[in-house]
């Protein structure tokens, strides 16, 4: 087969976690356009699921939620070829170490680290048996550039995810399964846009001023703006495609130059 953008994932079954909005939705849409059969998961089913995307409602921060997804996918489809562990986030309070409880830490670890670990564990045996598969872990530049005063548990759990992803690749790449990490910087999702609007309203400034202030807090974004969800999705689309067949065990940073070191 001559691969094109429209068919390079034809016959492949892909699962995207956190796939109901933002970057996850953009990734799911991108894989669908490339010909994959796409399953998306999130806690709640949105009203605007794209035609052709199968949806499973599950709370992946729990063991039961992860097991539900693994069971439903394998029962209905029999296998999984591509797993994009996109779900993640931080709901912990800002203020540094002193304000964080054990529950805050455990919540971040379950969401950002254990959720992908459990799904990997559920789907990897089938991939190894067939001698092929791709796993993408969506981490964050905060693994290397933590904002200790606002997202300390999130940054620590994403750093653990990057380390785990590399080690997993070392184990399963010889068995035919590629494992990669994508670490975005700030992404201007709809949620980020709403946050900029709230900051602008509370400060009496403009959305542009609020955006610039956040970029300054990150130490600056040389490219001059946050990423768009579709830009991250395009990178993931390439990495899971046959064109990236030799790539494994690597972290790809997409941050517009935010991280100031080599």
Gyration radius from CA atoms, angstroms = 18 Å
Please, how many domains? Answer: 2
Cα shape:
globular
Order of helices and strands: EHEEHEHEHEHHHE
- Overall residue-averaged pLDDT value: 93
Structural category is alpha/beta
Question: What's the CATH H-level homologous superfamily of the largest domain?
Answer: NAD(P)-binding Rossmann-like Domain
Look at the structure and give the CATH class of the largest domain.
Alpha Beta
**Helical residues, percent:** 40-55%
Count of DSSP strands: 7
Protein name: SDR family oxidoreductase
InterPro entries: NAD(P)-bd_dom_sf, Sc_DH/Rdtase_CS, SDR_fam
Organism: Larkinella insperata
Keywords: Oxidoreductase
Structure notes:
By secondary structure, this protein is α/β, with parallel strands linked by helices. A seven-stranded parallel sheet has the order 3-2-1-4-5-6-7, sandwiched between helices. The protein has helices at residues 22-33, 63-77, 102-130, 152-172, 190-203, 207-217, 229-239, and strands at 13-17, 37-42, 53-57, 82-85, 133-138, 177-184, 251-254. It is built from seven helices and seven strands, in the order βαββαβαβαβαααβ. It has two domains: 13-187 and 228-254, NAD(P)-binding Rossmann-like Domain (Rossmann fold, 3-Layer(aba) Sandwich); 188-226. The mean pLDDT is 93. Belongs to the short-chain dehydrogenases/reductases (SDR) family. Keywords: Oxidoreductase. This is SDR family oxidoreductase. InterPro entries: NAD(P)-bd_dom_sf, Sc_DH/Rdtase_CS, SDR_fam.
């Amino acid at each position: 087969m001559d691969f094109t953008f429209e068919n390079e994932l034809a016959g492949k079954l892909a699962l995207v976690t956190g796939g109901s909005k933002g970057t996850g939705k953009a990734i799911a849409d991108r894989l669908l356009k490339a010909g994959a059969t796409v399953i998306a998961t999130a806690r709640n089913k949105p009203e605007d699921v794209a035609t052709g995307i199968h949806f499973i409602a599950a709370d992946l921060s729990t063991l039961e939620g992860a097991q539900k997804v693994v069971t439903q996918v394998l029962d209905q489809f029999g296998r999984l070829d591509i797993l994009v562990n996109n779900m993640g986030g931080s709901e912990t309070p800002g203020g540094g170490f002193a304000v964080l409880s054990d529950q805050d830490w455990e919540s971040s670890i379950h969401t950002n680290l254990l959720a992908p670990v459990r799904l990997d564990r559920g789907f990897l045996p089938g991939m190894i048996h067939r001698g092929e598969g791709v796993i993408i872990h969506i981490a964050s530049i905060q693994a290397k550039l933590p904002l200790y005063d606002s997202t300390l548990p999130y940054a620590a759990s994403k750093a653990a995810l990057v380390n785990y992803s590399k080690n997993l690749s070392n184990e399963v790449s010889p068995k035919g399964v590629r494992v990669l990490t994508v670490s975005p910087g700030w992404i201007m999702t709809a949620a980020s846009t709403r946050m900029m609007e709230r900051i602008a309203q509370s400060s009496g400034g403009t959305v542009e001023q609020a955006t610039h202030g956040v970029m300054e807090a990150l130490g600056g974004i040389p490219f001059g703006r946050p990423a768009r969800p579709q830009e991250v999705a395009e990178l993931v689309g390439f990495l899971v495609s046959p064109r990236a067949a030799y790539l494994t065990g690597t972290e790809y940073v997409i941050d517009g130059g935010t991280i100031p070191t080599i």
